[in-house]
């Protein structure tokens, strides 16, 4: 039961983001800047892009 509660809490904190053309372009730029390419890193780059965007949003909100 404790595991189910932990899983439920973790899932409740997730936020689903749509992958837009702009998201894909920024993700591709992140990959290029890191010297990486290919589908192996594409999901990681997309998650990083969303995290960077959320971080920037939080910083603006704190000002």
Structure overview:
The chain is mostly helical. The chain has one domain. Helices cover 78% and strands 0% of the residues. It has 3 helices and no strands. The protein has helices at 2-12, 21-34, 39-62. The protein is extended and about 40 Å long.
Tally of strands = 0
Rounded mean pLDDT score:
89
What is the helix/strand order? HHH
Give the distance, in angstroms, between the N- and C-terminal Cα atoms. Answer: 41 Å
Instruction: Tell me the structural class.
Output: mainly alpha
Radius of gyration: 15 Å
* Overall shape: extended
Output the number of helix runs: 3
Extract low-pLDDT stretches: none
Instruction: Give the biggest beta sheet.
Output: none
Overall number of domains: 1
Quick synopsis:
The chain has 63 residues and is an all-alpha fold. It has helices spanning 2-12, 21-34, 39-62. The chain has one domain.
List keywords for this structure.
mainly alpha; 3 helices
What is the topology?
Layout lengths: L1 H11 L8 H14 L4 H24 L1
Helix pairs in contact: 2-3
């Amino acid at each position: 039961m404790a595991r189910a509660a932990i899983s439920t809490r973790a899932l409740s904190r997730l936020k689903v983001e749509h992958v837009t053309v702009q998201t894909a372009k920024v993700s591709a730029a992140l990959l290029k800047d890191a010297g990486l390419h290919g589908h192996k890193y594409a999901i990681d780059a997309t998650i990083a892009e969303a995290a960077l965007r959320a971080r920037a949003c939080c910083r603006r909100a704190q000002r």
